[in-house]
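Good morning,

Attaching, inline, the C-alpha cells for the sequence recovery test we're adding to the shared suite. The designed sequence is right after.
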C-alpha cells in the first residue's frame, strides 16, 4: 500500500522534473526558437517594431505624475478611441469583402476604400487632438525620443518595402 502511494506521488514528480529539465535543452538546440514567421522579413519588421517600442517605453522614463496624467487623458478619450478603432476595422473588413467578392466590382471597391479612408482620417484627427493634450505633460527630451522612435519605425518600413520590391 505504501509502495503504491509512493509510486503515485513520486513518479509524476520525477516525470515533471524530467520534462522541465529537458525543455531548456530543447530550446538551446533550436537556433531560432519560436514561430518560423519571425525569421521572415515581415516577422523581423514586426519583432523590431515591438523591440523598439519596449526600448522607447523604458527610455521615456515617465514620472509617476506623468504616467497618471497620460492615463487620465487616455481614459478620458477611451470611448472615442475605441469607436475610431472600430470604424477603421469595419472599413478594412468592408474593403476586404469588396476585394474578395466573386466578381470584381470596381465602384464597390472604390466606395469601400473611400469609406476606410474617411475612418482613417477621423482617427488621425482624433489622434492629433489627443497628442496635443499629451504634449504638455512630456519633457522636451521625451518628445524627441518619441519623434526618433517614429522616424526609426518609418525607416524600418521603408527598408522592408525596399527589400520586398528589389527582388
Amino acid at each position: 500500500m505504501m509502495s503504491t502511494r509512493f509510486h503515485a506521488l513520486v513518479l509524476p514528480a520525477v516525470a515533471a522534473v524530467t520534462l522541465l529539465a529537458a525543455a531548456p535543452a530543447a530550446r538551446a538546440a533550436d537556433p531560432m526558437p519560436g514561430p518560423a514567421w519571425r525569421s521572415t522579413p515581415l516577422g523581423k519588421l514586426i519583432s523590431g517594431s515591438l523591440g523598439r517600442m519596449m526600448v522607447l517605453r523604458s527610455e521615456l522614463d515617465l514620472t509617476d505624475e506623468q504616467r497618471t496624467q497620460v492615463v487620465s487623458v487616455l481614459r478620458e478619450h477611451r470611448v472615442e478611441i475605441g469607436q475610431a478603432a472600430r470604424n477603421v476595422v469595419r472599413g478594412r473588413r468592408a474593403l476586404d469583402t469588396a476585394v474578395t467578392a466573386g466578381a470584381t466590382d470596381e465602384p464597390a471597391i472604390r466606395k469601400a476604400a473611400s469609406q476606410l479612408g474617411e475612418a482613417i482620417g477621423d482617427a488621425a484627427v482624433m489622434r492629433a487632438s489627443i497628442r496635443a493634450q499629451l504634449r504638455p505633460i512630456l519633457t522636451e527630451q521625451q518628445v524627441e525620443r518619441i519623434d526618433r522612435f517614429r522616424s526609426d519605425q518609418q525607416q524600418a518600413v521603408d527598408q522592408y518595402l525596399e527589400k520586398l520590391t528589389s527582388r
